[in-house]
Amino acid sequence: MYSLFKHAGTLSVFKIRYCNGAFETCARYELASKGRTVPLRLMPNGHTLKAPE
Amino acid sequence: MTYWPAWLSGLALALVALTHWLTVRRMLAVSGRFTQLVNRLREGPPAEGDEGAMSEAELLAAVQAMALAEFGEEAIDAATAAEAEAEGGAPDGHTESAAAPFAQVSPQPLWLHAGFLGALFVGGLLSMLVAGGLSLDWSLASAGFTASFGDGAVSYTVLLLGGVLIGWGTRMSGGCTSGHGLCGVSRAQPGSLVATCAFFGTGIVVSLLLEALL
């Protein structure tokens, strides 16, 4: 997921707010730090990206 | 037992790491695969929706919509401008092509993790056959180890404790010798350089200490 955020553009706001900012609140970081599998589409805010219906 | 020459082993390891990257598009990581295998067995398959098909455009649109809903347009514009300035280019507005590297990464099936770990065992057997034949060795370790710790309960305890410490250190540092030592160092990753210096350095120091003390 980080590869999606590290590019300049609208998505960099996630990197600035979470990866470089309050990383301890990142849902992905929380799971990873507990040794759990991080779902591919889990966003830092805890929501999961869904395919359009 | 006759070991391969060090230079040949190094070349073989490099070939394995390169082949892994070229075929699977992921860095070689033994402990990472083991972790994935254990997690999949413990947690079951990924939740519904995690593996649903999404095109790159759909993925990008979904993330953009989420960013807009959470941060607002003003914060996004500020972040875009700051990011562009940090990279030395002009703000590029809302155009990006970030989905490509992400789209290449998808969950791997359980059999692939198990197959990789099984191949490590098969590879060891093959190298023994190539080196002159298969011979099982039931001794605990080298002569030096036996001279230091004997071959009784103490030696088993030392080996068990060593294994636990290796596993703990691997989890703490986020990788093992293959991930940090082979792939991380070759890519000059700072964390991997520190980790490799730490575990190899500690190994050398402890070996010298044991040799001097025991």
Q: Name the poorly predicted regions of chain A.
A: none
State the end-to-end distance of chain A.
22 Å
Secondary-structure element series of chain A: HHH
- Count of helical segments of chain B? 9
Helix share bin of chain A: 25-40%
SSE-based structural type of chain B: mainly alpha
Rg on CA atoms of chain B, Å: 24 Å
Oligomer state equals heterodimer
The arrangement of helices and strands of chain B along the chain is HHHHHHHHH
Rounded to an integer in angstroms, the radius of gyration calculated over CA atoms of chain A is 11 Å
Which sheet architecture does the biggest sheet of chain B show? none
Distance between the termini of chain B: 26 Å
* Domains of chain B, number: 3
The secondary-structure class of chain A comes to mainly alpha
The average pLDDT of chain B is 79
Mean pLDDT of chain A: 78
β-strand number of chain B: 0
**Main beta sheet of chain A:** none
Structure description:
The complex is a heterodimer of chains A (53) and B (214). Chain A has 53 residues and is mainly alpha-helical. Chain A has a domain at 2-33. Chain A is 36% helix and 0% strand. Chain A contains three helices and no strands. The longest helix of chain A is centred in the N-terminal third of the chain and has 8 residues, at 12-19. Chain B has 214 residues and is mostly helical. Chain B folds into three domains: 1-49 and 109-133, no CATH class; 56-102, no CATH class; 139-214, no CATH class. Chain B is 71% helix and 0% strand. Chain B has nine helices and no strands. Chain B has helices at residues 6-24, 30-43, 56-86, 99-103, 110-130, 143-149, 153-173, 177-186, 190-213. In chain B, helix 8 crosses helix 9. Chain B starts with 5 loop residues before the first helix and ends with a helix. The chains are: A mainly alpha (53), B mainly alpha (214). Chain A binds chain B through residues 1, 3-17, 35-37, 39-41, 43, 45, 47-52, and chain B through 35-36, 39-40, 43, 46-47, 49-54, 58-60, 62-64, 66-68, 70-71, 75-76, 79-80, 82-84, 87, 89, 92, 94-99, 101-102, 105-107, 171.
